[in-house]
Write a structure and sequence with these properties.
The structure holds 2 protein chains of 2 kinds.
Chain A: E1 6-9, E2 12-16, H1 23-39, E3 44-48, H2 57-72, E4 76-80, H3 84-93, E5 101-103, H4 106-117, H5 123-129
Parallel strand pairs in A: 2-3, 3-4, 4-5
Antiparallel strand pairs in A: 1-2
Chain B: E1 2-12, H1 15-31, H2 36-56, E2 60-69, E3 72-81, H3 89-93, H4 106-112, E4 116-121, E5 127-134
Antiparallel strand pairs in B: 1-2, 2-3, 3-5, 4-5
Helix pairs in contact in B: 1-2, 2-4
The chains are: A alpha/beta, B alpha+beta.
Chain lengths: 130, 138
């Protein structure tokens, strides 16, 4: 089974999904991401799906669940780069991905994440106070 | 007159083969000259129906057919399993209905993404779903 790499960049986690995931790969990405949010004290997660030419209900649900779990763990999730044909198909499928924030591309997604979490102190700063 | 130009079958037993279904349908849709949106719709519908076979039908077979009817070209996908069957098809087609852990968008969603949709199922007799998408149809 393939594993999708998760990169840490400051307080954010970055994922770029480059392969057509089977359901098990999608589930393990969800598990890995929630574990890493806690371990790395991440405040934001950016998921780039620009390489995905299909998002079906399973992958859509994985994205929505990941965002919901991240939110409970005090991190924001932004999904970026969805292809227009994928967006059209998702809505027709009946999946509106309410609750998942999105941005056009990685650059705008990073800007959005920074805006959302800018008022929070760095976790390192908290460490220093302890 | 509707005629089948060519066809191919693929066994679908696990989630890895759901991915194979997506790739095969994509390849045929590209060959037929489907637009990106048409390709994405039929590949997504195929993914939902293939997963249904794996999750609820104990696996099955997908058959893909390239169709010609006068000037129009299309793809027909047939999903057949020997699983437990669906007792109430009307209910299964409703959004949000699921007997498992999914979201219940599979059948209804696949129907919305297709131009033609047929389903035949009975308890103990498995399930057969056939969808067709025509190039250039809304």
């Amino acid at each position: 089974m393939e594993r999708i790499p998760i990169l840490k960049m400051g307080r954010f986690l970055l994922v770029s999904i480059q392969v057509d995931m089977d359901d098990r790969t999608a589930m393990s990405l969800q598990d890995d991401l929630t574990a890493r949010i806690v371990k790395d004290r991440a405040k934001g997660v950016l998921i780039d799906i620009s390489s995905l030419d299909v998002v079906d209900s399973f992958i859509g649900r994985m994205l929505a669940n990941t965002a919901a779990m991240a939110h409970i763990l005090d991190a924001e999730t932004i999904v970026v780069g969805m292809q227009p044909s994928v967006a059209i198909t998702l809505v027709e499928l009946g999946l509106s991905l309410k609750g998942v924030r999105s941005a056009l591309n990685v650059e705008r997604g990073m800007e959005l994440l920074r805006t959302i979490v800018q008022d929070d102190p760095e976790p390192d700063a908290l460490d220093d106070q302890e | 007159m509707r005629s089948t130009i060519k066809s191919e079958s693929l066994p679908v037993r696990g989630s890895g083969e759901v991915v194979s279904v997506r790739h095969l349908v994509r390849r045929w849709a590209v060959e037929l000259g489907f637009t990106i949106v048409e390709q994405t719709k039929i590949v997504t519908a195929a993914s939902e129906l293939a997963r249904n076979m794996v999750d609820y039908g104990r696996g099955g077979t997908m058959t893909i057919e390239a169709l010609e009817e006068g000037p129009r070209k299309g793809l027909r996908l047939i999903f057949e399993d020997q699983g437990p069957g669906i007792p109430d098809i009307e209910m299964a087609l409703r959004d949000g209905f699921t007997s498992g852990s999914g979201m219940g968008l599979g059948l209804g969603g696949a129907r919305r993404l297709s131009n033609e949709f047929e389903i035949r199922s009975a308890p103990g007799e498995g399930t057969r779903v056939a969808i067709t998408r025509w190039k250039g149809a809304a």
